[in-house]
Amino acid sequence: MKHKIIFCIVIIAIAFSITACSNANNETGFPAELETIAQEKVCVLESDSWFSDFYVLNDKVYIECVVTVECSEAASIQLYGCFPKDEGKLLKDALLLGQFGDSMDSLQDTAELPAGTTELHVYFIGDFAGTNQKQDRLLPTLYFVEA
Predict the structure, then answer these.
(1) What's the pTM value of the predicted model, to 2 decimals?
(2) Which one-letter DSSP state was computed for residue 40?
(3) Which residues contact 146 (CB under 8 A, 6 or more apart)?
(4) CA-to-CA distance for 31 and 25, rounded, in angstroms?
(5) pLDDT averaged over consecutive 10-residue blocks of the chain (147 residues)?
(6) How many C-beta atoms surround the C-beta of residue 145 within 10 A?
């Protein structure tokens, strides 16, 4: 009886950790060209992640986000953001590669993540399509790819 109770507690803990951690790679519509998915290793902690701001400079759109992730093991990743509502308005293309760094001077297209929780400062940079208005203030759909 004692083992059954412990087993049930373990199952509940696993179920809770799966639902508390969202991984956007599981959504339908994942771009076929991004084949190496890091979804087993990386998940987004949505309550600790947010869209920060955007601006247009020299026909480029800069979208700033803070993304907090939980990694089951160390991983080298790239992050793509999908902005379908802004395609053809703010952005020429919906799918943008994220650039990691605390400022525009230190951006890199890959991040080395340790096991555990990490806060990432991400800039999604794309070509300006002509309308200086973002359609929402939500995080984009996020796709993690092993680098």
Answers:
(1) 0.77
(2) T
(3) 36, 37, 38, 41, 75, 76, 77, 78
(4) 10
(5) 55 45 46 59 92 96 96 92 96 96 91 95 97 95 88
(6) 21
